Amino acid sequence: MQAPALPPGTTQRTLAIIMGGGAGTRLFPLTKDRAKPAVPLGGKYRLVDIPIANCLNSGMRSIYVLTQFNSMSLHRHIQASYKFDNFSRSFVEILAAQQTPEASRWYQGTADAVRQNMRYFLERPFEYYLILSGDQLYRMDFRVLLHQHIRSGAEITLATKPVQRAQVSEFGIMLSDEDRRITRFVEKPKEAAVQDQLKMSRELLAAINRQPEEELFQASMGIYVFNRQVLVDCLENDLDDFGKHIIPAAIEKRNVSAFIFDGYWEDIGTIRAFYEANLDLTDIVPAYSFFDASAPVYTHPRFLPGSKINGAALRQSIVSDGCIISDAHLDRSVVGVRSIINSGATIRNSVVMGADYYETDPPRGEIPIGIGRNCVIDRAIIDKNARIADGVVITPEGKPENFDAENYYIRDGIVVIPKDATIPAGFWI
C-alpha cells in the first residue's frame, strides 16, 4: 500500500516511544536474565527490532525505548544495532527507570513510565507522540496512521485490530461510529450482552472490505498517537496505565479516533504466543515474513560465516547464520545464530536460540554448548548457550501444562530450557 502524502516534516516532528519496562512475567523463563524486548525472535532478531523497523521504514528516526527490568542485554543490542552518523538528529536510545528529584519509584505502568520521562520528550518541538508496545509482531506503515490522525482532526488515535468473538475477552474492546470516533471502551468484556453492544457496524466492515454479516470487534493494539499538548494534559494526574486508565478517561472528553488495522498482528506476551509466532515463520507462505524487501527488519550485524551443513534432513525450517549442523533431522524448527547440532539429533516443532559466542575450547569435563549426539527435542524452546549432552530427550509428552524443575520449565505445554542451562547425558525430560 502506497503511504499517503503527509504535510512536509511530519515524520521528523513525531517521536516514537517503545514501551519495554514490564517484568515480562508471562514470558518467564525467557525474561529471567533479559528485558522482554530483548527476547530473541526468528533465529537472529530481537522483539524490539520489530517496532523499531516499523518506525525506520516509516521515516521516523527519533525513538526512545523505555525499560527497567534486566536492561543490560537490551542496552547492548540497541547500541550495537542502531548507529546514525554525527550529522543526523536521528537516534534510538534507551531510557531506563531512574531516581530523580521528581520521581524515585519504579514505573508503575505505561502511562507512569511516559510521565516520568516527559522532560526528555518535550526537549524538542515534537508535535506527535507515537506510543508502541515492545512485544508485538506486525508490519505497519505509521505514515498511514499519522495521515488519518491529522486528517480526522483527532487528539488521540488508537490502532485497533478486528477480532472474532472468541478473542474478545482477551482484549480491551473499542466501539466507534462511522467516522471512526471512539465512543466506548470496555476492558476484556466477558458477558455476551455487553459484547453484542460492541460489534463493528456494517459501515465499518464495508470500509475495511469485510462482509457485512461478519461478527467482528475492535481490539486495542496498544498503539497510540497523541498530540503534544493532549499527552501533557492526559498525564497531569496519578493514573498509571494507558489502556486501563488514560484512554477510557480520554474517550469521555477528547476526540479519540480508531485506526483499523486489518493486517497480521500477534501479541507475543506468553510462551505459547512466542512459540507459535516463531514456528509460523517456517510456513511455506508465512503470515508474517522477514523476506519483505520493501520493509526490512534491522538487527545487530554480527558478521558471522554462512551456516555449515555436514549432511542433514531439513524440512520447513529456518537456519540462521554461523551454525554447524551434522547429520541431524530438523522438522518445522527455528535454529538461531551459532547453533551447534551434532550427528543423530532430531529436532521437531522447536525453537533453538543458538549461542552468544563460539566456544572454541570448552572447560575440561564441561558439556559443550549446543545439542549433543542422538538427542530428541520435540515441542521445546532451547534458550541461548544451553549445554545439552548426548542422548537427551526433551518432550512435554505426558507432563503437566506448567511445571518448574531445576534446569527446565514447562509453560503452556512447551518445554523451556533456560539460558546457560546444562542437561546431562541421557537425561529424559
Short description:
This protein has 429 residues and is α/β, with parallel strands linked by helices.
Q: Tally the beta strands.
A: 29
Net shape:
globular
Report helical residue fraction. Answer: 10-25%
CATH architecture of the largest domain: Alpha-Beta Complex
Largest sheet: 9 strands, mixed
How many domain units? 2
Mean pLDDT score, rounded? Answer: 92
- Which structural class fits the helix and strand makeup? alpha/beta
- CATH class call of the largest domain: Alpha Beta
Treating each run of at least 4 consecutive H or I residues as one helix, how many helices?
10
Distance between the termini: 48 Å
* CATH fold assignment of the largest domain: Spore Coat Polysaccharide Biosynthesis Protein SpsA, Chain A
Indicate the multimeric state: single chain
Assigned CATH superfamily of the largest domain? Spore Coat Polysaccharide Biosynthesis Protein SpsA, Chain A
Uncertain runs: none
Using only CA atoms, what is the Rg?
23 Å
User: Which percent band covers the strand fraction?
Assistant: 25-35%
